[in-house]
User: What shape does this take?
Amino acid sequence: MRETDYIKRDSEYYFTLENAPEKRTIGEMPAIWAEKFGSRTAFVADDEEISYNEMSAKTDLLVKGFLSLGIKKGDHVIVQLPNTASFIYTMFALEKIGALPVMTLPAQRVSDLRGIFETVSPVTYIIPESYLGYNYSEMAKQMKEITPSLRYIICDGEMEDTVRFSSLFLEGAAPEYEKPAYNDIAHLLLSGGTTGTPKLIPRCHAEYLYNSEKAAERCGVTEDDVLLIAIPVSHNFSLSAFGILGVFLNGGTVVLCPYPSVDEMLPMIEDWGVTALQLVPVLVSALIDTVSWDDSCDISSLRIIVVGGSVFEKELAMKVEPELDCKLVQVFGTAEGIICMTSLDDSYEVSASCQGKPISEFDEIRIVDEGLNDLPQGELGEFIERGAYTIHNYYMASDEVNSAAFTPSGFYRTGDKAKIDENGNLVVVGRIKEQINKGGEKIMPSEVEENLCKADFIRDAAVVGVPDEVMGSRICAFIISDRETTLEEVRAFLKSLGMADYKMPDSVYQISDFPLTKVGKVDKKALEEQAKA
Assistant: This one.
């Protein structure tokens, strides 16, 4: 990494983007895209097609509405909107002003948000009226009571004592306002932690556009692509890997699916000629299952499925191309920075077996032991990285938090257990904290899960460790199967594969569906609690 790729300001590092395609802010881009792509459809929401011209014009109207409320550069705004047109306009308008949207998830509640509100002291909170049967009015009142800085609650709908979102699209000339620079912070993402207050991840304008552009390039995105987003659009995966920004940079179309459901996705794929999907593994499994028994599903327009968010078991990954007749691209990405992807010219076997290589020539990746010493190729260790679009510190975090997450030389410690294979591809096997220590033996759940999924009587599997007084931990397997099965049958099958006895599940739980986290990943904390009960 060249030191000139960063400037140091106020004890934080900002990417100077000497190697970036454009030194622009994200908020400037809708006008640039309108000039380039004009009447082409930028996105589809609620069955309405919005052109690049319309997206730019609506963003500018909303800028004036936000300015009328006194929202200015540097102000924190909590954004908790689902996959709607309102999210798109809100993101671009706030980032044009230089306000800092904090991208929260629609499924988060008071306990999830309290610490975030206390950390950033937001001036505005933007919410839907309701989503997935949940009415946000009571939560809005609670957040107002505990946040003295909160001046406005903006509701995309109708709610008492709030500003109606639709009223903020104002005509007329915009007043003068201080604009952000390309290397200022664009927005704050949430870390993927499952306990405590999520850490805040500052992403700068130009570096975020850079990583979106490089991810889109890796996936061969063109103006002919139509990307369907079913997972929350506020998630880093949906925004920039390659995400909505990668599509807009190339003049393609984004289709916003309101709910992460295969039943919702399938008609939209057919109706809008969707060519690309970005999914977490559990949705891929559901999609394959549905297509296998429903002959009426027309997904012939699909060119590519990008899968990330958690470990994608090889047994399931191997089904993607033959069952869905499109190219699989695996991605490993962190909201803190690095994006690794397989390539379109990778073989079927390679795409199903790894997470590929970094998207930028400026990315550095290492596999290290507990002392941060580099391990030989092929050995498992902690994956650490730094690069052109990787942060160097969490936002408003303590020195203790930052020193635990970043090395003195600027490498981010992902907390993932991984190796580099013989072809230089990254292979992630799971979170280090998920590693099960049973009687002194170390077991990665992903290895057991992968072997379980090889059984023709198991459709999907998740493995967790729970405390055991004698062995330290015991191995619990949760399986989805079309028929009744037993622990003995499962262990016999794994034994036939040659799996070591110490890796065998100690118990098996048969369930119909996995509990999911707010971003659609298998909720292993919930499974652990179920196994403990």
